[in-house]
Amino acid sequence: MEYLIKKDYKLDKCIEIFENNHKNFVFDKNSITDPIYTKFVCTLDDEPIGYAVVYPHNDFLTREQFNCNYSPEDDSIYIWHIVVHSAHCGKGVGKFINNAILNEYKEHPIYCVVDKNNTPSLLLHNKQGFQIVAEFTQDFHGNMTTFALLKHD
Fold first, then answer.
1. Which residues in 80-89 are b (16+ Cβ under 10 Å) and which e?
2. What are 92-150's pLDDT values in tens digits?
3. Positive/negative CA dihedral, 130, 134, 140, 143
4. If you ran DSSP here, which 8-state letter would residue 129 be given?
5. Which residues contact 3 (CB under 8 A, 6 or more apart)?
6. Among candidates 92, 102, 148, 77, which has minimal Cα distance to 124?
7. pTM for the whole structure
8. Which residues pair with 84 in a beta bridge?
């Protein structure tokens, strides 16, 4: 089994993955086809099995409409979301995608925001060197949700 990363690849399949396994932690399906974002698509035998959407600007907290009192650096990168097809969860796909992002943007501070109830995502990011730099609570799609802002240097 060899995973490969392809950028902006087979986005229609990424939409299917989103619909299969976003688990109500991710709601922004439109980011998959929006050209302002870079998509890191993990493939197996040339078929997408997971992906990440990366936003290359530091205004991500405003763009996401998060009420977090934190100021990211000007050259920040933001992982908008990572979704892995349910048939491939627990097989290192999320880690593989994250490693590709960390490699690509190693000269930049990299951030992500994770729902504090999303234990798999928190564990994945923590194991890869992300640290919580802020926490905030706000209404998110009709639910009061506590989030962690994580940063990797």
1. bbbbbbeebb
2. 999 999 999 999 999 999 999 999 988 988 998 999 999 999 999 988 778 898 999 99
3. positive
4. T
5. 42, 43, 44, 49, 92, 93, 96
6. 92
7. 0.90
8. 50
Give per-residue pLDDT as tens, 34-72: 999 999 999 999 999 999 999 999 999 998 889 999 999
Report whether 49 contacts 85 (CB < 8 A): yes
Rounded to the nearest 10 degrees, the angle between the axes of helix 119-127 and helix 93-104 is 50
What amino acid is encoded at 7 in this protein? K
**DSSP structural state of residue 74:** T
HSE-CB at 105 with a 13 A cutoff on CA atoms is: 23
List domains and CATH numbers for the chain: 3-152 (3.40.630.30)
